[in-house]
Design a protein that fits this description.
With 179 residues, this protein is α+β, with helices and mostly antiparallel strands. The protein contains 7 helices and 7 strands, in the order βββααββαββαααα. Helices cover 31% and strands 11% of the residues. The strands form 2 sheets. The chain has a 5-stranded mixed β-sheet with strand order 1-2-3-5-4, with no helix packed on it. Strands 6-7 form a two-stranded antiparallel sheet. The chain starts with a strand and ends with a helix.
């Protein structure tokens, strides 16, 4: 299987990627990340956290941790990157300026609007400032070690628990993403 290139995106398998998404990353992913991660690409649709209107921009924030920040800080939805990680920005590292207005298909992905992106970013900034007083390193370590027993068995490999065939929507991540 090879990468097919078009003017505004490229295709590998059944997935469309931003034209600047690194080919090496497409061809060399860890198991249960990227195309195999429901957080990145959605469960049965094209509305994962790392997508915009059906186009993969990068990885979700969970997968960013799996790659230890080497593939940026990860997306939280609507083209908005996670703020809690000190990893590089996808926009700085490889995406550059993205024409969100003309990227992808709004009819197929009606939730991918600038208003939703703005609300997502405002929520992340508010959460980031609320957590500012906490020790970021300890919080991230506790979060990804899955130390909070109230959330049960996590399916995401970044949490240090046994993984199923997809990294997606454990009760802990669902609570965080549904804020």
């Amino acid at each position: 299987m090879s990468i097919e290139r078009y003017e505004n995106y490229k295709v590998f398998g059944d997935f469309k990627y931003h034209v600047n998404f690194p080919d090496e990353w497409i061809l060399n992913e860890l198991p249960n990340t990227g195309r195999q991660c429901w957080n990145c690409v959605g469960k049965y649709d094209d509305c994962g956290y790392a997508m915009w209107r059906g186009i993969i921009l990068g990885y979700c924030a969970n997968c960013a941790v799996d790659y230890e920040g080497e593939r940026c800080r990860g997306f939280m939805g609507f083209g908005v990157e996670a703020l809690r990680y000190k990893y590089s920005s996808a926009f700085t590292l490889y995406l550059g300026e993205v024409d969100f207005e003309n990227l992808g298909d709004i009819e197929v992905n009606p939730e991918d609007t600038f208003e939703n992106a703005r609300e997502c970013l405002e929520d992340l900034i508010a959460d980031y400032h609320d957590e500012d007083e906490e020790d970021d390193d300890n919080r991230s370590e506790d979060y990804y070690e899955g130390e909070d027993d109230d959330f049960g068995e996590c399916l995401h490999i970044g949490c240090g628990k046994e993984c199923s065939n997809m990294s997606a929507y454990c009760s802990k991540h669902t609570l965080i993403y549904d804020r």
